[in-house]
Amino acid sequence: MSQMNTHCPQISLFPFPLTENELSWEASDWESAWDSGENKEEGATSVEEETTGQKEPWLQDCVVSLSPCSDLLVVARQQKAVFLSAKWRTDDSGREEMTLAVSWTGTLSTDEGECVSSSICIPLASQKRSSTGRPDWTCVVVGFTSGYVRFYTENGVLLLAQLLHEDPVLRLKCRTYEIPRHPGVTEQHEELSILYPAALVTIDGFSLFQSLRACRNQVARAAAAGSDVIQPPPLAYKKWGLHDMDTIVDHCSVGIMTLCVFDQMKNASILGGFNASVKGNPPAMSQYVTVGGGPYTGFYYAVEGSTQPLLSHVAMAVASKLTSALFSAASGWLGWNKHKNEEEAVQKQKPKVEPATPLTIRYGLPDSRRHGESICLSPCNTLAGVTDDFGRVTLLDLARGIAIRMWKGYRDAQLGWLQVPEERVDREFSPSASLPRRHALFLVIYAPRRGILEVWGMQHGPRVGAFTVGKHCRLLYAGYRLMGVNSVTSKGWQLHTQQVCLLDPITGALRTVNIPFHLALSDKKSERAKDLHLLKRLTTLLRSRGVEPDILESEAKSALLDIKHPAIKKQALESLLSNKNAPVSCLTNITCALHDTLKQQDPEAVDIELLQLCSSQLKLLQLYTDIQQLHSTADIEPTGPGQDSLEGIEDELSRVGPTLQRYAQLTSRPSVSFAQDSPDSPLPVQAFLSQMECTEDGELRVIRASETEWNQLGNFMFWGCLCGKSPLHKVCDTLQQAGISPQQLLSLLLSVWMQREKEVLQKPEETVRNLHTLLIALSNMPGAVEESWDSQSISPWWQQVRCTCIQSHNAAAALLAAFVAHRAAKASITSRADSKLQSEWEAVSLDLEQWSVCVRQLEDVLVLQTLLLVPPPQGAAGGAAAQCSIKTLLEGGTGGIADSVSKWVFRHNLAPERLKEILQKIENKEADEKLEQKAGEEGKEQDEKMCQRFPHSLSPDLLFAHCCWEYVVQWNKDSEEGRYLWCAVEHLKLVSSPHIQLGISAMMWSTFIVKRLSAAAYLMEKASHLHILRVCLCWQDIGMGDKAVTSFLGCCVRLLQILMEADSAVEEVSAPELSVEEVWCGAEGPASLAELALEQKGVHYPLVQHHCLLASLQHAAMTFSLKLKPLSLFDSKGKNAFFRDLTTIQLMPSGDMDPGLVSIRQEVRGPPPLPSSGPKADWWPSLCLELGSLLQVNPDILRRHLVCELYNQGLDLRAEEVMLEVEDKDVLGSQLLVLTGQRLSYSLLHSQSQTQGAMELLARLPPTLCTWLKAMDPSELRCPLVPLPQTSRLVGRLIEILPENHAQYSLGLHLLEAVEALTTED
């Protein structure tokens, strides 16, 4: 019996608190009957009755109901109730357990004097397709002594209230849909039955399901939004008046049944005599069985169609007004916050009660002295258990209407049923495996007087279980599942419901009863049941920890040998071999004992599969033990002077020694890993057995599951040999004798070699020598190297080694393995060639050529990987170092190497100019100082070797192109990092080939730039008038902040300028020829970046210039915060040409521009005050003149505007320089005259330090000049405080450029006199 704890706090509803003690279950004696052969039955001989003076526990006075899903428990007493919902909890030991915690408590009754008399919890199925049998919510149905039946949610919210009969509700029962197990079984409808003292009401399940859902939805809507309530559909029910019984206390609704033809003819002949007529179709009837007195049991039959179902008016508890809905939701259910007058009005208006349809008893079981107390219907609807006041439990056959079995000595018994499906394991050994799945039926009887729970097999089976429990428990049996399920929605569902539960109020423990199917097959002496019991006992023994190995071995051996059935014995042996607690000696002894036992039996009676399993597992256990002993011994084979000579390999090791040493330093950095993942952890025997299997011919085959398990197995077999701690040849001989193929041994050896790269590099000479010895030993095994292969093909044995080295990401280990294998293959092929004809030297050279190429490629990979492992400096982008191999580089195409180096450049944040300097030094043979300032000495030699080994793959143009693309890809991931895009453009500038430069620029534009540029243009068009709005919308439309957009626009301008320069130079230079190193010609990946760039089409220069103009305007507007709408400066043709494919020819704006558009362009105002010096002081004026020529704006207008702006800011000297280039002096003179008047007006009229001389001068001025000065507005000056000599010089310039016949020439003379007078006074 499984257990689920429910710890409830103390509630005022109950007279006694609920304790939190765990209930200890006594071990049942029936399990020991296998050994003693006696059927012990505890407590059956004598039962002590409780004294009448003993006080009953609190649970006996309560109405208790449990949802079949075990997620809601309702306990009610008189007018109050408490709802407990399921929740997960972690106990003190860290174990997760399900608890039932109080979710709601309160008063249920609303009428005066009524009490709770019955309750059930009905889970309602979810209508969602994703549901797999879980309930959507649970409805609590409560019957009262007033006759009312009320429906609540699990939170205590009242949904419905029905008064169907004005007598106390005795019992509520429910029937839900069950999937028919056989084709002939009648499909039963869902219904809720309500028993009154003399009436029975059945509510149609479909009608109830729809009404409950509608009411619950309306409650949710009313509480949330206060919407008016829609009347739900009325309930369809039938009401029967049960006659011919004195008292009725309980009932069960069996469902619809149809008589067979024989029973129909029998009944007709009994009632009508010999000449009675029989109807063609027997009528369908609903069967109801009641218990009570006079008679003791009654059988009622209601013919379908004899009466029409009644439609009730649903008395909804949901208020139709917003206020009552909100108040009711806050209080827990509806109706508490009504006014007193409203409550009285509701109580007075009782609903109409329909009369009952009379239903007479068909027959019964008469017993005048016996009174029934309860009836419990079986899940198959064919049997029922009845308890009475004589302490008997009677089993009824409902189809025949007779009692077929009776138990005595069960006073106040509580009943439940368990229907157990046949298990899959049982199904395999059943003789009726092809028939439908069988079900076993058990009756559960709880005798509270004796404190015992018994389980009996049906119909005449023995007692299969007895448990000692408390005397105050409550047996909870629902007898139904989820409501709202039908034959369509139940397909594929697994309804998660419990059938029988036992609630102990003393400890608060809720336990479920689970019975295995095999207990119904026969009695306790069944061999199969005994075997399963022994298997369970063995499983329990293996799960227990802390058992001594000797005890474990003896107990497991005894249980395994006692099992009779071969299939169960095989299952027990497999469980034993997969157990992690059993040592290898224990497994060997038990398997050997079983094997010897099978050998001693009759060969015809022995199961062949079981014998083969024992033989194979015994062989594997012996192999595991032998290898373990070889590794633990100190018997090391001496290496002679001529044995395993490594001539030639020492030279290669010394040649790559510095690189290997640097690589070892970079890979030996500390890292965090779990202890169980350590390669030094021993391999359990269970893991060894799970990876090995015996074939039919007696050989062993290794099962490759995961990479980790494969490496662990290889580490177990060969690492001791590679370290020199184990005898190499003895280990190889043991593995060869076991029958493992040399190919799998070779794969295991190479996997552990690659995995333990760090340890290998600590002692490379010793480990290489041991690897050479092992490789030679494996090569000499039968079946390793074929005696004869095609002279034009490659040896599969050595090809396997090459494939492993090619795919490995451990560059150093792969290179060392290639050195050893190359040496061993050369020696093997040479020895074979000496004994054969000289014509076979072609095959020899072909195989060795493959090794030469592989070694050269691995050396290149080692240098590249060493470079990639150099850690980046602090503050760089960082990230994990890329892993490369021959396979990844070949699959990456011809640009794979440059792509890897470009990622390294990005990780190290290497400046473009610095990379250019390094490449120039390498070309000039000055590579000794190329990386000293960048990363110290860490990448110095590696970068030099890289460029020497890859002169074509790492040419400057290819490297700059890949670096450009890597930076722009990283910028696209994080567009706020504007420096990434700037670095991409700078790398692009350094590409010397205009063809590659043009292609990369075009791809960057179409892939990353054009969409963001167009978004920025449209954003500025709609939000340029409001700077704050523009800042807020940048993230939404472009994905960048305000500052990042400015940087982005500047990079766009530079990118388009590079594109135009490359397009202009592409005709003068021929396209470069791309090549690759000879050993890397076999690359079969995607086209390289340079190849894609050369395949790009030429661009349309005017269209590129058109976009460059727009980007420049946008950049200027963002830089100087100009109130500018860039797109509005272009006509319709210009707007339509924007953001098109640069390779297409678009209709561009014509030479004659609309004068209105030109005037709009001329009105574009300049930036804020310009600095007197710096890059922006010259950049903005030159940009204005350049853009003005492209926008067809008169440059003289721009120069005049610039002169006025410079004077306005007090930059008189720069203004005089620009003034020399102005052509229309007359207009400029008029503009400067106004500016001079503003300066003089500020000095005379608006300055706070006005002198008396200035006031006298103002009085002496001509009236015309004085009036003109007063009309000037000095606030337009950005720098009003200008020294008088500068103003005097400005007036002098003004007189020089104004002709004498100018209308304002005399005004200029007056200004000159006034300024000179002020200067003289100062």
From TrEMBL:
Q: What InterPro entries would the database entry show? A: Rab3GAP2, RAB3GAP2_C, RAB3GAP_N
Which ranges carry the Rab3GAP regulatory subunit C-terminal domain? Answer: 744-1299
Domain Rab3-GAP regulatory subunit N-terminal, by residue range, is 58-476
Cytoplasm recorded as keyword: yes
Taxonomically, the superkingdom here is: Eukaryota
Pfam families (UniProt xref): RAB3GAP2_C (PF14656), RAB3GAP2_N (PF14655)
Q: Where is this region: Disordered?
A: 28-54
The Gene Ontology terms for molecular function here are:
GTPase activator activity
Where is it located? Cytoplasm
> Mainly resides where?
cytoplasm
GO cellular component labels:
cytoplasm
> Does the keyword Plastid belong to this entry?
no
| Keywords carried by this UniProt record | Cytoplasm, GTPase activation
Homology family: Belongs to the Rab3-GAP regulatory subunit family.
What is the protein's name according to its record?
A: RAB3 GTPase activating protein subunit 2 (non-catalytic)
